[in-house]
Amino acid sequence: MDRTDPEGAIAAAAARVSNWGRWGAVDVLGTLNFLDDAARLAGAATIRRGTAISLSQAFGGDGPQKGWRRRINPLHVMMDSGTDSAFGVQGFPHGAGGADDMITMPLQCSTQWDGLGHIFDHAVAWNGRKAPEVVDGMGDHVTGIQTVGARMAGRGVLLDVGRALGTDGELPDGFAITAEHLAATIQAQGESAHVRRGDIVMVRTGQLARVRRGLAAGAGWGDYAGGPAPGLSFTTADWLHGSEIAGLATDTWGFEVRPNEFDEAFQPLHQVVIPHIGLFLGEMWDLEELAADCAATGQWDSFLVAAPLMVTEAVGAPLHPVAIR
C-alpha cells in the first residue's frame, strides 16, 4: 500500500470487493443475505452443553466514552423509586408501589452493531444509494437497524488472534491483523474455527483484557474509546469479501487497527466494508469469558444470538450478544 494515498487505496479496494447489486437494487440486508436458514441450522448444531456466555460489556456511567463527537456514557435516571413509594407520593391505591427508570445514551457507546447506514464513501451508502436519500436528520429510512433485527442469529466463530499470535494472549496496540494472521489462527485452533459462508466471526485481540487490568489498578479506561488499538488491517478487505461472512465483531472500539495504516486517514476499512461490501461490524464486544471456554474445550464455534435493539431507523444499535455452546 502507498501510505500517502488512502483515497486511491480505498477506491481500488472498493472496486474489487463491491457487492452492489448482488442481491438486487432494493437490498437492505447486505452480507446478512449469507446468513440463511441453512446457515442458522448449522449454527444450532454447535450447541453441545447448553452453556450460555454473555459477550456484552456493561452499559453504565463508568464506561469508556469521553465525549468524542458527542458520544457519552449512558445516563441512568430513576423516575420512580422505593423512596417515592415509602413516602406515599406515587398516587397508587392500597399500598401499591413501584420503580421506573430511563436511560439516555448514544446507540454506539458500548457493545453494538454498526448498521449499513453508518458509514458512507463520498456521500454514497450501501448498494450505491445517495447518502442523503438514505439517512437524513430523522434517521435511516432505508437500511435502519430494525430491518435486520431477527436475522442476527447463527454460527459464531471466535478467532482468538491475541492468544494465537500475541504475547500473554494479547496483541499490542497498533498491531495490524492481516488475512495471513487470520489463517494462522484458524490453523492453530483447528476444525471448529474454520470460517464458513454466513458465519459471524468474532476476533479477539486481547485489548479489553489489558484495559481492564488498568481499570483494576485505578488507571481508568485510557484511550480505549478511539485511541491506538490492535485491529484488522486494511488489506483484509478482500478476505472479508471473499469469506462471505455475515458479520464481524471485535473487542476493540473501532474494529480496524489504530492508528490506521495511512499517513492521513480515518477508519478507511470502514469506508470499504460497510458501504461497498455491506458488512455488519460489531465493536466493543466482551470476548474474554468465551475465549477462556473455547481454549479449555477446544471448541471455537457457538450458536450466537446477536440481535440489535430494534431502534427504528437507527444506523447502529446496542445489543447483548450471547454465545450458546
Automatic annotation (TrEMBL):
This is Cyclase family protein. Pfam families: Cyclase. GO terms for biological process: L-tryptophan catabolic process to kynurenine. One of its GO terms (molecular function) is arylformamidase activity.
